[in-house]
Design brief:
Number of helices: 9
Structural class: alpha+beta
Helix content: 10-25%
Largest sheet: 5 strands, antiparallel
Shape: globular
Oligomer: single chain
Order of helices and strands: EHEHEEEEHEHHEEHEEHHH
Radius of gyration: 23 Å
Number of domains: 3
Strand order of the largest sheet: 5-6-10-8-9
Strand content: 5-15%
Bound molecules: flavin-adenine dinucleotide
């Protein structure tokens, strides 16, 4: 469209054939055709875009990698999709500050990898960690199985750089954990999915990589006892980083041919550099690491004791450098029509 030709430092996609993909995310919703899809590359571009949106009266719909499952980034009505994929910036890690800055356009997997390359750990772990954008993970306050121990994305955010309705980028917060002055405005932006402004970058807190990880495989006799197990472990003084429940069908799939589809967590191999070991506890409990046991039959003992409500959790006697995770699959691309979404009106 002509009105977008004046935008500086911006790639513009217009026309149904180029913008069709932007009517979808990983939900089953289909948005309206957007007026255009814009990919800003500078603050000047953002300034001009906000002025244009105000003048022409259209909404701006931020978009990261489009992995959202709630239709948040799909356009409705008279709107323009702001694809942040071309936003510039390099990931910067400060070991001294245990902090990392990244642009919204960075992929979350690259953010985690950049921290890991410095021996540091960025804990937020939505199951889409290898597909979603850093900006999208902040905007949705994403979190995965590790939230039990490490919390959600918001617990790691120190400062947020965001485009506000005045067309300028402002920084909310300071890159330090020792920040006790005033309300935490940056936290308002985390999880707000673009309704207050558009996140262009953020500083997050890091941890030293945990030196070891322990994987416990606990056989359960009664399914109902699962409900009590997390609480029992915590009460007994353990703080697990994640729980995964594998029913017999999932276990059989993981242990069978092709079980190596289960992906190791990106931190796992460099935790200790040691291969996963197996050991036994009082002769009945054995940790089992699926992607290292792809062709072996399961190690089972007829004398295996279940861990039930009356049984205390077993002590941790075996350490593994790996973390078990069930196989991740992308969500089904099939989509049906529906409605959702919002637009951000500067
Ligand atoms: C297989 C799969 C597994 C998933 N597992 C999890 C999970 O375990 N936990 C979880 O929380 N989510 C999960 N999700 C949902 C989704 O991946 C996350 O919410 C992810 O963080 C979204 O990132 P994105 O870059 O794809 O954002 P998008 O889908 O592009 O956008 C999501 C929302 O954020 C807004 N937004 C995007 N970028 C910005 C920005 N720069 N500034 C302001 N607003 C912005 C959009 O407008 C939209 O409302 C999963 C999705 C899939 C497909």
């Amino acid at each position: 469209m002509d009105i977008f030709a004046q935008l500086p430092d911006t790639a513009v996609l217009a026309g149904a054939d180029l913008t069709e993909a932007y009517r979808h995310d990983e939900s089953h919703l289909v948005g309206d055709p957007p007026l255009a899809v814009v990919k800003p590359r500078s603050r000047e571009a953002l300034r001009a875009l906000v002025a244009l949106a105000k003048g022409e009266g259209f909404a701006l719909v931020p978009r990261g990698a489009g992995t959202g499952k709630a239709g948040g980034c799909i356009p409705l009505g008279r709107s323009v999709v702001m694809d942040m994929g071309a936003w510039p910036g390099e990931i910067r890690v400060s070991r001294q500050d245990l902090a990392l800055w990244a642009p919204a356009s960075a992929m979350l997997r690259d953010v985690k990898a950049a921290a890991l390359a410095q021996g540091l750990f960025y804990p937020p772990d939505p199951n889409s960690w290898d597909q979603c954008a850093f900006g999208g993970s902040l905007a949705t306050n994403a979190g995965g199985p590790g939230a039990c121990k490490y919390g959600m994305t918001r617990h790691w955010v120190l400062a947020v750089d965001a485009l506000m309705a005045d067309g300028e980028v402002h920084t909310f917060g300071i890159p330090s954990v020792k920040c006790n002055v005033g309300p935490s405005l940056g936290q308002l932006l985390v999880g707000s999915e673009g309704i207050f402004g558009l996140i262009v970058g953020a500083t997050v807190r890091l941890l030293p990589v945990p030196r070891e990880r322990l994987t416990l495989l606990l056989p359960m006799e009664r399914w109902e006892a699962l409900l009590d197990l997390p609480g029992q472990l915590v009460e007994a003084g353990y703080l697990p980083s994640a729980f995964e429940f594998w029913d017999p069908a999932v276990l059989a799939d993981l242990r069978g041919p092709g079980g190596c589809r289960a992906k190791p967590w990106p931190c796992s191999n460099s935790m200790t550099g040691t291969a996963a070991r197996t050991a036994s506890w009082r002769g009945w409990w054995r940790p089992w690491v699926p992607w290292r046991n792809t062709s072996r039959p399961p190690r089972t003992r007829t004398s295996a004791k279940p861990c039930g409500p009356s049984g205390a959790p077993p002590p941790c006697t075996s350490r593994s450098a790996s973390r078990t995770r069930s196989a991740r699959t992308s969500s089904c691309p099939a989509r049906a029509s529906g409605s959702s979404s919002k637009g951000w009106r500067p």
